Amino acid sequence: MSTVAAVDIGGTKIAAALVDDTGTIRERIRVDTPSGATAILCVVAELVTGLRERSSEPVQTVGVGAPGVIDSTAGVVRSATGTMPGWAGAPVRDELTGRLGLPVAVANDVRTAALGAVMDPRLDDHPQVLHVSVGTGVGGALIHDRRPMTGPHAVTGEIGHLLVPSFGALACGCGRRDHLEAVAAGPAIAAAYARATAQPVRPLTDVAARMRAGDIDAQTTIRSAAQLLGRTLAGLIAAIDVDAVTLGGGVVHGIDEFAGVVRAALHAEALPPLRSLPVLVPPAGPDTPLLGAAQLARTITQGTRT
Ligand SMILES: [Zn+2]
């Protein structure tokens, strides 16, 4: 039995877990994300140290999913959006290796989640998968044979900046307008509901609760965002061609109806060969990013053994 530490760094929360080699989470902890790269890496090191102390067996390696454009070879954050001030340039791998004395691998958080998503046995014969994450932002990762594709500029899968019809009110996290993320991400849906009802912006969890209670504006707003995402993905998968699409992120896992609306809109909009494409929510749900980070950690072990 070998145990690895898995870490998922998000804009609001950092989750860490011990994962055994059956892919079962043994221990877990979740804390608020502090401000600044030094503070974040300090908290991650403390979380992993705490988990190691509680582990009945040695922790072999650490896998970290982190926001931004990540150079996995160097283990460094190459760029980050305004939601993570001071994160660009953070030497994640070397800093954590130095603090923990363990081998550390780091990758973009959506790519890490995608590694977890393709562990789904339903995807065993589906080598080419687009994973889409809808949460505070909209991100994607393209997986080929269980490995994330990166591309010459390390941005393969960054679907959040696709141009969509002008809904206009919010700027995207990249600063431009009329991008997918500015329409379909959680804060964008919450802002659209506030505009539709002329009420102050409330968290998306409140809007989702209103939808469940029968609020028509909430239902319309959430369904519109999911439909636009599905239609946009239909065009995208025609351009790149995949065996399956997987959906994750806080909006997908927090609103039961969301994935079904995305799936129906994608199939309705897609070219004929793509109209029955599997569009799946991973069985591990919100734990998918941690299981992916554990997979990332195991690539180090495999690498040192070969
Ligand atoms: Zn953008």
Q: What can be said about this structure in brief?
A:
The chain has 306 residues and is an alpha/beta fold. It has helices at residues 37-54, 92-100, 109-117, 181-184, 186-197, 204-212, 216-240, 250-254, 256-269, 288-305; strands spanning 3-9, 13-19, 25-32, 59-66, 69-71, 76-79, 104-108, 128-134, 138-144, 147-148, 244-248, 279-280. The model has no long low-confidence stretch (mean pLDDT 93).
Detailed description of the structure:
- With 306 residues, this protein is an alpha/beta fold.
- It has two domains: 3-113 and 286-305, ATPase, nucleotide binding domain (Nucleotidyltransferase, domain 5), CATH 3.30.420.40; 125-281, ATPase, nucleotide binding domain (Nucleotidyltransferase, domain 5), CATH 3.30.420.40.
- Helices cover 40% and strands 21% of the residues.
- It contains ten helices and twelve strands.
- It has helices at 37-54, 92-100, 109-117, 181-184, 186-197, 204-212, 216-240, 250-254, 256-269, 288-305; strands at 3-9, 13-19, 25-32, 59-66, 69-71, 76-79, 104-108, 128-134, 138-144, 147-148, 244-248, 279-280.
- The chain has a five-stranded mixed sheet. The chain has a five-stranded mixed sheet with strand order 10-9-8-11-12. It has a two-stranded antiparallel ribbon with strand order 5-6.
- Strand 2 and strand 3 (25-32) form a beta hairpin.
- Helix 1 (37-54) packs across helix 2 (92-100).
- The protein starts with a strand and ends with a helix.
- The structure holds zinc ion.
